[in-house]
Amino acid sequence: MSGQNESRIRPSGRAAVVVLGDIGRSPRMQYHALSLARQAHLEVDIVAYGGSDPHSAVKEHKSVHIHEMTQWPSNPRSLPKILRPLLLIFKPLVQFFMLLWYLCVKIPAPDVFIVQNPPSVPTLVAVKLACWIRRSVFVIDWHNFGYTLLALSLRRNSRFVALYHWIEKHFGKMANGSLCVTRAMQHELAQNWGISATVLYDQPPEFFQPASLSEKHKLFCGIDKSLRTPYSLQDCLSNEVLTTDDDNPNVTLFTTQTGTDISLKWNRPALIVSSTSWTPDEDFSILLEAALMYDRRVSALLNEDDLKREDVFWQEIKGGKQYPRLLFIITGKGPEKEKYEEKIAKLNLKRVAFRTMWLEPEDYPLLLGSADLGVCLHTSSSGLDLPMKVVDMFGCGLPVCAVSYSCINELVEVDKNGLLFSSSSELADQFMMLFKGFPGECDELKSLRQGVLASRSSVNWATEWEENAKPLITKVIFEKSS
């Protein structure tokens, strides 16, 4: 891009990042805001819902200004079915006028709007009208297709889905530029939507890195109490045989500190992390079934006797015996969380434990950098987007087991940085293979981690944004000014 074009983006210029969702749960749009401020030297206004805090780097940047809209209340379950179609019409109308108020009145006029899609309705309509009123241009960042997400809750042939599809396509073609997350989506937009989009792969920002031993110990000290609190009466982490060090603040389930020396316990559980939005496009039951299979298969392999004295039984499990205890930490918020927590509480698991939690933005990278394996249950309503959570895991040096679907191989390279599975049984097989001999002799798991670490240094968000997003944004602003 020429210096003449780049000079059009001045520190006095402005960009508005528009998210009809929780900005704290929209990492890619947070990274856009940081790059617009740091690399394009723009003043940036974020218009989004509140709820979860964004990363401190976003909150503390002097050129980034967050404007929180009032959140739409949860849909009441008691609402009669006959009234639900009215809600589908009324809700976007209210959101439309609220968006328009913020985009046209509450924030200074921007040179460019960067809008997240989905949701498409009413976002794209409101942004297009705001562009006309404020003489701005807009760029759509296509994360997925809104109509395919709507089809998860309605029939694919629903009139509402068809109308949504038409609006998304019609207003999507009005954008001055488009970014998208995969080459498969780029092809779909070009062939069937008439939209030329630039691929901007998700990449982790600089604060997603492998955790040091001291960082791991500090994190585990902070969450140790919640890890030892089970959903049911007892599990392999909460049994009294395993909690004799509760009063020692320097001992956690994973680490021990003696003076200034910190070490990982030889009989620690294997830590598996999965981040989920607890929505229908991520079938969490697959992970539950795989964990149950691992539990039963290991028990059968080791010929464990259910009639053993309980204290002896729990002590043997703590000792490992070829296969470790597994601790699954599930992060995220969403509508199906309570349903699955109830299911977890009813499981009779011997060597597997589940914990759900919501971490502060600064602690989430530390958890990923401290884990042994990540699991991704994202299946994609369109089959054309990639899970940001896997990108974050790779940034922290964490290998991944991910659900297989059409374009996931643009991100996960089998036997290099992760594995793909299509069923709970296949995922259980992967647990058995990866964790046999943990922590010292699990060569397959070590090989995957080495593959992640070898590739993570080749590219990052800042360079990807500089090469792909900045030229597009510079171009549309320059054309507007011409």
Automatic annotation (TrEMBL):
SUPFAM superfamilies: UDP-Glycosyltransferase/glycogen phosphorylase
InterPro entries: ALG1-like, Glyco_trans_4-like_N
Membrane topology, record value: Single-pass membrane protein
Primary location: endoplasmic reticulum
Pathway: Protein modification; protein glycosylation
Keywords assigned: Endoplasmic reticulum, Glycosyltransferase, Membrane, Transferase, Transmembrane, Transmembrane helix
Record domain Glycosyltransferase subfamily 4-like N-terminal: where: 36-197
Cellular location(s): Endoplasmic reticulum membrane
Coiled-coil region(s): none
Name of the protein described by the UniProt record: Glycosyltransferase subfamily 4-like N-terminal domain-containing protein
